[in-house]
Amino acid sequence: MGAETTVAAVLRVEAAEKSYGPRKALKGVSLAVGRGEFVALLGPNGAGKSTLFQLLTGLFNADRGRVEVCGCDIRRDAITALAGIGVVFQQATLDLDLSVEANLRFHARLHGMAGRDATARIAEALAQLGLAERAGDKVRELSGGNRRKVELARALLHRPRVLLMDEATVGLDPASRRQLLDQVLALREDGVGVLWATHLVDEAEAADRVIVLHQGKILAEGTPAALVAQAGTGTLAEAFLAMTGGAEAVVRGSD
Amino acid sequence: MRLSHALLALQAVTSREVAKFVRQGGRFASALVRPMLWLVVFAAGFQNVFGISIIPPYETYIPYQVYIVPGLLGMVLLFNGMQSSLAMVYDREMGVMRLLLTAPLPRWYLLFAKLLAGTLLSVLQAYAFLGIAALFGVELPWSGWLYALPALVLAGMMLGALGLLMSVHIRQLENFAGTMNFVIFPMFFISPALYPLWKLEESGAAVVHFLAQVNPFTYAVEAIRFALYGQISFEALGVVVGCLVAFFLLAAWGYDPQRGMLKRTGKPG
Question: CA of A111, closest CA in chain B: separation in Å?
Answer without folding.
Answer: 6
